[in-house]
Amino acid sequence: MRLAVVGAGGWGTAVARLLAKAGHETLLWAREPGLPEEIASKRENAQFLPGVTLPTEDLTTTDALRETLDVEALFLAPPSFAMAGMLDRLAQYGSTPSVMINLAKGLDPTTRRTMSELILDRFPKTAAFTLSGPSHAEEVGRDVPTAVVLAGRDLELGQRLQREIATPRFRVYLSEDIRGVELCATVKNVIALATGVSDGLGFGDNSRAALITRGLAEMVRFGRTFGVSQATFFGLSGLGDLVATCTSQHSRNRYVGSRLGRGESLEQILEGMDMVAEGVHATTNVYEIARDQEIEMPITEAVYRLLRGEADPLSLVEEIMTRTPKREGI
């Protein structure tokens, strides 16, 4: 297949490498000046995916966005807050890719819509999919065995894409619960910030396990409001990605949370980061939706208040731990 990936961050680069190694003619678009030429000459994205060698065959780079539309399937890897703007830019060229696959994990900050909803709004004739799950770029780029889920409503087309994307080290499951996959991928980043804060405060495994477990309960309460499938909560984009993001050394959300837990300011942390921690942007959307829908999400609320500077980490821990006793449940 002729494929293109828009966005040469760590995840976009890892996916482009994966597709090229699977034998697909793959084009990688980068917005950073000089990055396409650097990747082409060094066969490495030293800025966003250092130490990973990129294939010399089937992978080319470009800074011409229009070239990415002349493909059979287009993978979209900008951060969620930049997706709407990127889709507007693509729409200006007047072409409609037959397949668009979202790689971002978050909601649009203005409309609170999922990425697939944004895609279909601007390209109503395209088939929209989302690829999600526990899949850190640093590991996918090094062929660490990984399992993900491809979600979309056209299951027949999804089965073809599933076969084309999969490799012996990258297993792809199929789901038709695309909105559920996207919502779970959003909420898990908020919980990862919380587990990072716990780590930064010097707490241990007990605390992390409690946050993951009760974070999953918040994910389920949130998702049930919007009809998310039970299988999605306990699948790769739900529990799977929640565990990976809350525990991994590669998790940017956990990293930001740990520095917040050590008393650093959010502004200071973000100034020194090249990569995006999606949870920082997702927290406000998830909190506001939960508030409007009257969904109980105390961990999310605590993260929201911490990011806004309304409380310090230790006081929020005490608030959560001293809430009214209750029976365990979701």
Show the helix and strand layout.
Layout: E1 2-6, H1 10-21, E2 25-29, H2 35-42, E3 59-62, E4 73-76, H3 80-91, E5 99-102, H4 115-122, E6 127-132, H5 137-140, E7 146-152, H6 155-165, E8 170-175, H7 178-200, H8 205-225, H9 230-233, H10 236-247, H11 252-261, H12 266-271, H13 278-293, H14 298-307, H15 313-321
Parallel strand pairs: 1-2, 1-4, 2-3, 4-5, 5-6, 7-8
Antiparallel strand pairs: 6-7
Helix pairs in contact: 3-4, 7-8, 7-10, 7-11, 7-13, 7-14, 8-10, 13-14, 14-15
What is the helix fraction of residues, given as a range? 40-55%
- Rg over CA atoms: 19 Å
Number of strands: 8
For the termini, the CA-CA separation is: 44 Å
CATH superfamily annotation of the largest domain: NAD(P)-binding Rossmann-like Domain
* Count of spatially separate domains: 2
- What's the rounded overall pLDDT mean? 96
Q: Could you say what the CATH topology of the largest domain is called?
A: Rossmann fold
Tally of DSSP helical segments: 15
Named CATH architecture of the largest domain: 3-Layer(aba) Sandwich
How would you classify the helix and strand content by structural class? alpha/beta
β-sheet strand percentage: 5-15%
Strand order in space, largest sheet = 3-2-1-4-5-6-7-8
- Which stretches are poorly predicted, pLDDT < 50 over at least 5 residues? none
